[in-house]
Automatic annotation (TrEMBL):
The gene is Eva1c_4. InterPro entries: Lectin_gal-bd_dom (IPR000922), Lectin_gal-bd_sf (IPR043159). PANTHER family: PROTEIN EVA-1. One of its GO terms (molecular function) is carbohydrate binding. This is Protein eva-1 C. Coiled coil: none annotated. It comes from Araneus ventricosus (Orbweaver spider). Residues 28-121, 130-222 form the SUEL-type lectin domain. Pfam families: SUEL_Lectin.
Length: 259
């Protein structure tokens, strides 16, 4: 019965995670304006941006005269850096789209379009780090809920101040797969939770026996709204979500009351 309750809670919280940290998409034609607007207290993070695909035949692009033949090298190019430099850390971003996004234009005169993917990430983060085999505890105020942005379990040559190299251990680059998803399943949408920094919880990273491993979680606290269909000032959590999360907190408290 306890196993089923845990699986049910994981499925509900995973669904909640998809809604709050989903990837959004925009397609914009030449000479039109890219308009991105995130929710209050979140900022734009560009995941992918490609420009250069010919727009001929696309309903959303206005027809105009095109060269009789498109050059074979008129293909999409990565323009993420340029879009990111204009939109980074902003809640709103407006940018006119043209071939000026490219360093060199391989097919002048051809109407093209931009395809961009982005997320609205929290503008305020909390970062917590614990060493291998330690417990990491996350907690938000009573009216707020945990929103996981990323998690890392393994080792990194960049190191972690909280976990210095000791006893012959050393930093190396290796990490467990799906650490973020694991942290989301356990904590996303709860008021408080505890994560074990070990291979039982996160799986065994492809590290050497001497690797100095640690768990790093980046998260924020999001508000619940208090009326059906309302949107919070931080994340879209309607009253049903709040009721669900409150019930999960009660179950979690009951299940771990003997600790």
């Amino acid at each position: 019965m306890a196993v089923w309750t845990q699986r049910s809670s994981i499925m509900k919280n995973a669904s909640f995670a998809v809604r709050t940290l989903r990837t959004l998409h925009r397609q914009v034609c030449d000479e039109e304006e890219l308009q991105i607007e995130c929710w209050p207290d979140t900022v734009i993070s560009i995941s992918q941006a490609e420009y250069g695909q010919p727009a001929a035949g696309r309903i959303q692009c206005l027809e105009r005269r095109e060269p009789p033949h498109h050059p074979s090298h008129c293909t999409p190019q990565d323009v993420r850096e340029g879009i990111q430099s204009s939109c980074r850390e902003k809640q709103k971003c407006h940018l006119k789209i043209s071939s000026a996004l490219l360093k060199e234009d391989p097919c002048p005169g051809v109407q093209r379009f931009l395809n961009v993917a982005f997320k609205c990430r929290p503008s305020k983060f909390f970062t917590r780090v614990v060493c291998e085999n330690e417990k990491l505890k996350l907690r938000c105020r009573k009216s707020l809920r945990i929103v996981i942005y990323s998690a890392f379990f393994g080792s990194a040559t960049s190191g972690a101040d909280e976990c210095p190299e000791v006893g012959g251990s050393k930093y190396e680059d290796c990490e467990a797969s799906f650490a973020t998803e694991t942290a989301m399943n356990s904590c996303h949408g709860r008021r408080r939770c505890s994560l074990s920094a070990d291979s039982i919880a996160f799986g065994l990273p492809p590290c050497s026996a001497k690797a100095r491993m640690f768990l790093k979680v980046v998260y924020t606290c999001g508000e619940c709204s208090h009326s059906e269909g309302a949107v919070s000032t931080k994340y879209r959590m309607v009253q049903n979500d709040c009721n669900l999360l409150s019930n999960n907190d009660k179950k979690n408290k009951f299940e771990h009351s003997t600790e």
